[in-house]
Amino acid sequence: MPFCEENNIGILSWGSLAEGFLTDNFDLNALDSKDFRRGHKYGQAENSKLIMLVRDAFNRVAARHAKTMVDVVIAWELMHSALTGVIIGVRNEKESEQMTQATGLHLAKEDVREIEQALAIWNTKRE
Question: Which pTM value belongs to this model?
């Protein structure tokens, strides 16, 4: 991202919601037994504590702003100056309307720091 930013190269993010793992009320155990996410790396036992750490950080920030975790994930991505846009899959009109609410959310420095600390732990432990 720093290279792209320095050279005025646009970036589109994809997979912002981590296949649903970073959505409100996501429950791996409630998924159909054939759902691909059961075998996803985020769904593996060794990653469950880490993904919960990230989810918890997004949820705490969401609670402070009376928003959803999805709103905060999108707002966090959109605040990065290197990102040109965020690609998010939606399944219906209601989801599309809900996801646009994040565009007006401005995260405080403390919010960003809390999220990025959780993500740093996630990135360190996964490598």
Answer: 0.83
